[in-house]
Here is the input.
Amino acid sequence: MPEENTGVVTGILGDVVEVLFARDKPGRHELLTLSEDNSVKLEVYGSSPNDRITCLAYTDPSKLYRGAKVVRQFETISVPVGSGLLGRIVDVFGEPHDGKGPIKLNKRRSIYGTPPNFQSIKVNREILETGIKVIDFFTPFLKGGKIGLLGGAGVGKTVILSEFMHNITVFHKGISIFAGIGERIREAQEMIESLTEMNVLPNVSLVFGQMNERPSVRFRTGYAAATLAEYFRDEEDKDVLFFVDNAYRFIQAGNELSILMNTIPSEDGYQATLSSDIGIFQERLVSTNNAAITSVMAIYVPADDFSDAGVQSLMPYFDSQVMLSRDIAEEGRRPSVDIVASTSGLLSPSLVGDRHYQAYLEAIKILSRYEYLDRIVSIAGEHELSPEDRVLYRRARILLNYMTQDFFMVENQTGRKGVYVNRADVVEDVADIVSGKIDEWPYEKLLYISTLSGVATSGTRA
Here is the structure.
């Protein structure tokens, strides 16, 4: 190896490694390795004075020492791409971790792709049905759009995201790319077992950078998964569902790297590059004239504080924001969506139709009033309400119970079969509820039903 292509380790500070290159210096993102051990991977991150460059360690830095010889690779991190990745579980380097043997694909792509130009971006106006009642009605999903699932720990973000994956694969025959960023290994194993059991795994490619990985690995895992999605969109003209669990961990990993690099923090202690870090990632996940990338992102909300700067920095990218509530989850209503707090920019008559739009307006009006009435009921009881408010309160309870649903992905935990409900059926049911047609039905019986027609046929009525 020529001397100009080698450097020497001059300092090690945890995951940050300082390397001296006396002559030609490698560019940003270039991979380096030890001359004596090519399993060690370093990535050029920046430069420092006196001909030194700073690198991020992707492997255990305990293998490094001052004076170790470092060799340039003249390439960035790349992953194999193609249909052979479907049904496989890989890491940020595209190496398999599922015990199914090596991935035999010749094509590879750098994980540092660039967003498409403006001329090639296409804006879709087609609603993508998910089969989840509360999502399809209150926060509809646009093909090629972005939806955020926001909530604290244990409120059901991963379950909803997994159900999306199941329903799109089974009922719409789509392919999915999943980026597991900074979550627990146990949760990843449970998801893989559920996807296998439901026969969904053959249409999903999973890229994991778990909680125990180095921050550099977790920070780049989303890029690796985005590269796979871009390949299917650009080269195979296939629509892709892109899932991230968890987008907040992506921000957190970037923050850890910023602290390690000793850079000055910004608001709430986050990295000064927070907005650009998110923008570089999000702007790659768009639809083009070839095909669409539709993304669903779970976002952990630290301490249930939705005003956190990291959480707020993600908000502008979503067409729909689904807020999950701990109080609703504790009441036993799943999915635990806070309907009034959730928002969508897609609720217009031109997109969802007049029938849906009018039913939505009436439902939101009832639920907004219900929040006030519920506080009175919790203190004084339902009998203290006026006759009109009592009717409205009961109607809201019927609507909230109707929006509960059994999921396919947790059948083995609930013991109840999952259901897929068409959006058209939900619209008709909600229209009946808000118009008062079923005011006399016992609202307790509407928990975890599919549609009102099923309840009526079974004879459940007051």
Summary: The chain has a mean pLDDT of 91.
